[in-house]
């Protein structure tokens, strides 16, 4: 609901060029989060869309300066709660890289399996929320039914459903048990026909195609300019994936394709994410076949002090490239933790991309960018 | 576009609509997946992370916590307060007060991981309800443990009796040893009051600090 | 029984009957929709109020009645208050000519079809009045969209009805039903020797009916409230309740019209058992079958974009319905041509 006082008319002296300011407020019925977009509109067309962030700034980076390395782990899950495993992976990987801690193979494979499961569950929330924005009320419930299975698997593994805090420096909190491995295999078998059903119900649907095809073009050039990564840039035809560009963990041992669609519209980004879910299932299957027996955590000193210097570690989170840069001055407490989050860069191109678009199309485009606002504000 | 492609696109579009309807019809025939809480509940998995609780040691009938404060130091949110006293006959301290501020706890598990004596674990409580804020901001885990110990003692009377006897014997032995050290003349064995597993009221023995009443 | 045969008494009884029918339908169709949505989404729907949720509409009604009816300052008071009533009146009028069985019809006019369509058009004007009188920029934008949507979809609907009129030759609804007697193969839907595209005609009619009643996937007016407030924004309490009831009443009228025109009205599909209460039973069965399909469609598809909506009407439905009109005319004249030639 927009209050009358927000409809400021800006009359540029010419009544045919009258514009007004519309506040797409921090409170949304749509499932975006607390993002405020200040729209200057000419009738139904957007002249300027200015995103205003900061409504959920929780000072994670400052908290990193006040806690020991181990105490920052719960924070990492809460930066982007939908793909929490990836973010914990980046932080843990950065500390391991700096302190030269060895991680056993079993732990690395378990990290890959849980990360890819988390990627699928994050994409399902995105899919359901996008369709809810577009007016289809049923697919979100189908997606959440499948997501429940993932959450139940991860709950049986580590006890938490959303903010896992499962990885530790050198490995995992507890070992993966056979129940989890079997449950994951069953899930992969269950999920493939479900993805086919999603394709028939929604992706091939003519109404959705008319809603997304040709809407919200974002070229590869614009992505490079703003640093947008993830499905946004892969939907523009550029095959950039952190798992291939800066390989980490055991991804070099797994074979997977990088889905790329060159059309650069909302439909391309949509298809990239749907294909990513298929590829994640493929990765999980390979990891389940290859996971060795062994210890699940390596040797970590009791009091962890990193050598002086700074280290970076980047992962392919569900939304794009998430990078952690830690600066240590030799003490127990970090000097600086910098979080480079993908949604921040993905949102920054919104102002340029939405010029001259009609309002419902601009909102469909925002849905296809897959923004999680706590990820932007940290 | 040409008339033919427009025509074919319309037909295929219409067919996609019919496919969608067929899928929802098929899904509608499947049973409901809702668990009608509170009429039905789900069982929590073994590793479920509810709030932490003190573990009841079946051999002693008490907590294993030695008030070493490792959990206090491991907690990222500073939400644990532990107090303990050293009782006679025991090598380590026992916990007298363990207060968890559940309003700031993030269920990260660092405390469970840090504990060297396996004294705390996750509970399976997911529907904690109270009308008072203090039940969350100062969650008294020792009191919860005592309530649990009472229930356990009723259910397993032999084990409870064994545990009580063992602790009484240990305390009695320690009391007589301390008495032998404190007074040169051999005196009577520990008074019956010393059978109670708490600080004795006999004036001869040294007393520890008074336990705080919550 | 002399009192009951008096025309005014009979009309009065029918009036109460229709109001009761519409009221009960509006209330319980909401429940049916929510339960149907729940079924499709594999959840129970409302099931706490009463056994299986049967008292839910009553609870909703009490809630709406208890709310304060506010008339915002600066609005056109008369139009603001009149708009819900003007939206509710046309479906009630239209139901006066629809025959529920061979003896259950309030007033069987020989221009029954024309009557229904002329009153159906008032609905659009009433929504426009409601949007205008709200003195809210977004209400009037929504109302303007609804008007352009309704106008766009009236044209193919009327073309389709004209095609049907050519086949039936009469506007009297009871006679139209009478022509479909004898079993399922006599229904207008299957009269493909007169109009080979009759099923397509039915589908076009159904789509236009969805668009006229602002149902998904064409529900720009009400569900646009994600972005901006819809046409009903300034209405609270029972004012909103009346708009809501009017929407379901429109669905009832649209589906019953589709039943009468294409599916044989109160005729049974097996040829026998068409009279009296049996006829009413068949009619209600077919009508509720169509309403169930309307609910099914709503919960399956996302919303169309506004220009897609208009494109669908102007660029696809109107050419196809014009084509069926010409085809039907040609097919009807074909025997004459044959007679002339041979």
Summarize the structure.
With 378 residues, chain A is an alpha+beta fold.
Describe the overall structure.
The complex is a heterotrimer of chains A (378), B (214) and C (342). Chain A folds into two domains: 47 residues, no CATH class; 318 residues, Orthogonal Bundle (Cytochrome-c3 Hydrogenase, chain B). In chain A, α4 packs antiparallel against α14. Chain A has 15 helices and nine strands. With 378 residues, chain A is an alpha+beta fold. By secondary structure, chain B is α+β, with helices and mostly antiparallel strands. Chain B is 38% helix and 10% strand. Chain B is built from six helices and five strands, in the order αβαββαβαβαα. Chain B has a three-stranded antiparallel β-sheet. Chain B has a two-stranded antiparallel ribbon with strand order 1-4. Chain C is mainly α and 342 residues long. Chain C has one domain. In chain C, α6 runs antiparallel to α7. At the A-B interface, α2, α5 and α6 of A face α1 of B.
The biggest sheet of chain B amounts to:
3 strands, antiparallel
- Most extensive interface between two protein chains, with residue counts: A-B, 32 and 27 residues
Number of E-type strands of chain C: 0
SS class of chain C: mainly alpha
Strand content of chain C: under 5%
Helix fraction of chain C?
Answer: 55-70%
Specify the helix fraction band of chain B: 25-40%
Overall average pLDDT of chain C: 85
Number of helices, counting only DSSP H or I runs of 4 residues or more of chain B = 6
Write the H/E string of chain C, N to C. HHHHHHHHHHHHH
Which features would summarize this protein structure in a list?
heterotrimer; A: 378 residues; alpha+beta; Cytochrome-c3 Hydrogenase, chain B; three-stranded antiparallel sheet; B: 214 residues
SSE order and pairing:
The complex is a heterotrimer of chains A (378), B (214) and C (342).
Chain A: E1 8-10, E2 19-24, E3 36-42, E4 45-52, H1 60-64, H2 73-79, H3 84-99, H4 105-134, H5 139-158, E5 167-168, E6 171-172, H6 178-203, H7 206-212, H8 220-226, H9 231-234, H10 242-245, H11 266-290, E7 309-316, E8 321-328, E9 336-340, H12 342-348, H13 350-353, H14 359-369, H15 373-377
Antiparallel strand pairs in A: 1-2, 2-3, 3-4, 5-6, 7-8, 8-9
Helix pairs in contact in A: 2-3, 3-4, 4-5, 4-11, 4-14, 5-6, 6-11, 11-14
Chain B: H1 3-28, E1 52-54, H2 70-74, E2 80-85, E3 94-100, H3 110-114, E4 120-122, H4 134-137, E5 139-140, H5 141-155, H6 157-182
Chain C: H1 2-5, H2 7-40, H3 56-65, H4 77-94, H5 112-120, H6 122-133, H7 137-168, H8 173-178, H9 198-212, H10 220-223, H11 238-262, H12 276-298, H13 306-341
């Amino acid at each position: 609901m927009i209050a009358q006082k927000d409809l400021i008319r800006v009359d540029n002296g010419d009544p045919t060029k009258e514009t007004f300011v519309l506040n797409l407020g921090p409170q949304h019925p749509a499932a975006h989060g607390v993002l405020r977009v200040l729209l200057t509109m000419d009738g139904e067309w957007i002249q300027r869309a200015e995103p205003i962030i900061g409504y959920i700034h929780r000072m994670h980076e400052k908290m990193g300066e006040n806690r020991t390395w181990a105490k920052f782990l719960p924070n990492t899950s809460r930066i982007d709660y939908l793909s929490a495993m990836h973010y914990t992976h980046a932080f843990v990987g950065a500390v391991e890289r700096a302190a030269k801690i060895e991680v056993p193979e079993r732990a690395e494979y378990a990290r890959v399996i849980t990360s890819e499961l988390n990627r699928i569950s994050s994409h399902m929330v995105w899919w359901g929320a996008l369709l809810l924005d577009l007016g289809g009320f049923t697919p979100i419930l189908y997606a959440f039914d499948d997501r429940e299975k993932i959450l139940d698997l991860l709950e049986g593994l580590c006890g938490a459903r959303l903010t896992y805090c499962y990885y530790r420096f050198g490995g995992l909190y507890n070992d993966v048990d056979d129940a989890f491995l079997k449950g994951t295999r069953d899930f992969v078998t269950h999920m493939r026909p479900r993805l086919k059903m999603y394709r028939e119900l929604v992706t091939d649907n003519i109404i959705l195609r008319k809603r997304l095809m040709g809407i919200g073009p974002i070229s590869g050039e614009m992505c490079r300019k703003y640093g947008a990564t993830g499905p946004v840039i892969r939907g523009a035809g550029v095959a950039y994936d952190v798992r291939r560009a800066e390989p980490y963990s055991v991804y070099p041992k797994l074979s997977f394709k990088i889905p790329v669609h060159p059309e650069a519209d909302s439909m391309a980004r949509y298809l990239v994410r749907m294909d990513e879910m298929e590829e994640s299932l493929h990765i999980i299957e390979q990891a389940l076949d290859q996971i060795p027996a062994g210890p699940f955590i390596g040797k970590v000193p009791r009091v962890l002090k990193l050598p002086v210097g700074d280290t970076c570690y980047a992962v392919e989170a569900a939304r794009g490239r998430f990078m952690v840069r830690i600066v240590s001055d030799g003490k127990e407490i970090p000097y600086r933790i910098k979080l480079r989050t993908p949604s921040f860069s993905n949102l920054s191109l919104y102002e340029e991309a939405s010029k001259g678009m009609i309002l419902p199309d601009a909102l469909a485009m925002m849905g296809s960018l897959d923004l999680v606002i706590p990820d932007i504000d940290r | 576009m040409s008339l033919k492609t427009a025509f074919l696109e319309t037909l295929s579009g219409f067919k996609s609509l019919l496919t969608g309807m067929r899928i929802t019809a098929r899904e509608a025939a499947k049973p409901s997946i809702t668990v009608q809480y509170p009429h039905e509940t789900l069982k929590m998995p073994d590793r479920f992370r509810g709030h932490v609780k003190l573990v009841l040691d079946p051999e002693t009938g008490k907590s294993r916590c030695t008030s070493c404060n490792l959990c206090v130091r491991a907690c990222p949110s500073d939400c644990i307060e532990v107090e303990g006293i050293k009782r006679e006959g025991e090598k380590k301290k026992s916990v007298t007060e363990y207060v968890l501020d559940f309003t700031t706890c993030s269920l990260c598990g660092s405390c469970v991981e840090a504990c060297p004596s396996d004294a705390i674990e996750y509970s399976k409580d997911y529907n904690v309800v109270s009308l008072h804020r203090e039940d969350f901001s100062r969650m008294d885990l020792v009191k919860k443990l005592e309530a649990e110990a009472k229930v356990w003692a009723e259910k397993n009377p032999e084990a409870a009796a064994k545990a009580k006897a063992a602790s009484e014997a240990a305390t009695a032995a320690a009391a007589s040893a301390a008495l032998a050290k404190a007074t040169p003349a051999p005196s009577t064995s520990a008074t019956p009051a010393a059978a109670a597993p708490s600080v004795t009221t006999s004036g001869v023995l040294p007393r520890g600090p008074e336990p705080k009443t919550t | 029984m002399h009192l009951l045969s008096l025309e005014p008494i009979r009309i009065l009884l029918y009036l109460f009957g229709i109001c009761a029918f519409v009221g009960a339908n509006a209330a319980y169709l909401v429940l049916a929709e929510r339960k149907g949505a729940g079924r499709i989404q594999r959840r129970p729907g409302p099931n706490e109020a009463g056994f299986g949720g049967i008292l839910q509409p009553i609870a909703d009604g009490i809630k709406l009645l208890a709310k304060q009816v506010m008339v915002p300052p600066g609005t056109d008071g008369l139009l603001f208050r009149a708009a819900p009533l003007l939206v509710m009146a046309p479906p009630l009028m239209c139901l006066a000519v629809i025959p529920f069985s061979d003896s259950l019809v309030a007033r069987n006019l020989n221009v029954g079809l024309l009557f229904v369509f002329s009153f159906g058009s008032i609905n659009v004007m009433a929504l426009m009045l409601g949007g205008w009188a709200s003195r809210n920029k977004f209400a009037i934008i929504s109302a303007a969209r609804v008007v352009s949507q309704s106008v766009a979809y009236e044209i193919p609907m009327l073309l389709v009805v004209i095609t049907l009129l050519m086949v039936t030759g009469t506007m009297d609804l009871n006679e139209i039903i009478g022509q479909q007697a004898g079993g399922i193969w006599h229904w207008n839907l299957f009269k493909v020797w007169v109009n080979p595209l009759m099923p397509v005609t039915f589908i076009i009619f159904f789509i236009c009916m969805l668009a006229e009643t602002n149902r998904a996937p064409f529900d720009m007016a009400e569900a646009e409230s994600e972005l901006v407030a819809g046409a009903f924004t300034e209405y609270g309490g029972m004012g909103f309740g009346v708009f809501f009831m009017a929407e379901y009443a429109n669905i009832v009228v649209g589906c019953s019209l589709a039943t009468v025109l294409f599916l044989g009205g109160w005729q049974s599909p097996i040829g026998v058992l068409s009279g009296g209460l049996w006829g009413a039973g068949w009619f209600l069965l077919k009508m509720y079958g169509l309403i169930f399909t309307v609910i099914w469609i709503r919960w399956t598809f996302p919303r169309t974009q506004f220009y897609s909506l208009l494109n669908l009407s102007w660029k696809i439905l109107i050419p196809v319905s014009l084509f069926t009109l010409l085809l039907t005319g040609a097919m009807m004249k074909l025997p004459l041509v044959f007679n002339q030639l041979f």
